[in-house]
Structure formats: C-alpha cells, structure tokens
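Memo to structure team: turn this sequence into structure tokens by end of day. - J.P.
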Amino acid sequence: MAVLLDVLNLEVRYGGIAAVKGISFAVEEGEMVCLIGANGAGKTTTLKALARMLPSAGELRYRNERLDRMASHALISRGLALVPEGRGVFARLTVAENLAMGAYHRNDGGVVADLERVHELLPRLRERRNQLAGTLSGGEQQMLAIGRALMGRPQLLLLDEPSMGLAPLMVQKVFEVIRAVAAQGVTILLVEQNARLALEVCSRGYVMESGCITLADSAAVLTADPRVRAAYLGE
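Reply from structure team:
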C-alpha cells in the first residue's frame, strides 16, 4: 500500500511549552490507525497540527504534497477532513444545513448521491434533518459531525475522541459507523482515549506519552504488551 500521510519530526509548541516533541509516523492508504495515550499526551494537538489549525515545525506530507505549507481551508478539497473533539456542529443550523456545510466547497454533481449515502449510513440524520443540531443528543451530534465530514468525500478522515462523553450503547453505535466508513475505503487516523476500543477496531497503533511516540506496532502486539495493558487497558 502507498503511504497516504507521512509525518516527519512534527513539533508543536504553546508558547514556551513543547506539546509535541518531534514525532514521526505514517498512515498507509486504506488503513485504520489509532493514536492512544493519556490526557495531555499531545494527541489532539497532533490532529490539529495535521489539520493546520495550529502552527507547527517539521514536515507533513499528504500524497507527497506538503500540508504544512497549506491553509486549513485548502485541505478539504484535497480529501482530508477532521471530525474535531467535542463534535463542533453548528448548533443553530439544522441537521440538513450542517450536512450541506460539509460540501460547501464542491461544485460537482455527486453531492446529492453522497447525501443519500450519508443518510443510508446514518439514518437518524434523515429522521432529524429539519431539527436544529444543538437540540440533538451527544451521540446524534457525533454522528452528524461524521456525516458532515463525509459530505466532503474525504480520502483521509481524522477522528478526535469520537467516544468522549457518550453512553456505552451510543459508543458502540458510533464505532459501528466508523467501521462502516473504513470498509468503504476511507483511510482513518483515530485519536481515542479508550485504548481498548481503539485497538479493537484499528490494524496498527501509536502510543503517545508527554508529546512523544513511545511505542508503535500492530494493534494485536500493542494489546498484548504489558506496558500498554498496565497503563491503558486497566490490567
């Protein structure tokens, strides 16, 4: 498989504090890869840097094109989309209007067909299409955030803490959707504090601690690693 995303010596600072300390990793086309670690490890900061929402040092290559030289708004037309931590839906717009915003940059003839695919994948959004997004449950808002990103027809989807604040049953439903998106050929980089769940759905993983990547291996190897089991799996 070809490398879709190549991160080389990524550094992110908040003033004098180094939040991400020169990490390097790669995601191949068609993979589902997770980035796990404790709160404050630098996971969300990493995704924000990839989405060009934060200034950074190092090289970020997407299909051999330098992301770090682009503005954030230019990424979606190149097939890279972020579902942010906290969902970030437009609370005063309807579900339908939120989904339309996901395709704001498109002028091709496939938007209607993509909307139908999103509705098939997330039927609750069809049922709620005229409802204000701010009145949805947390799980429904998470599904809307994913659906909005899919309306951009991404090739690489960055998912930041999709299980955060959700009841266990809704977490299960959201991850069923994520698996279905991956099965459609979308490459996924998943940041998730629920390490067990992340390693169950991903083929490979990276462990972040204090702004550094300390472990990298297949999901099966990481799940069996005593250090991962003790620190992140509660064993």
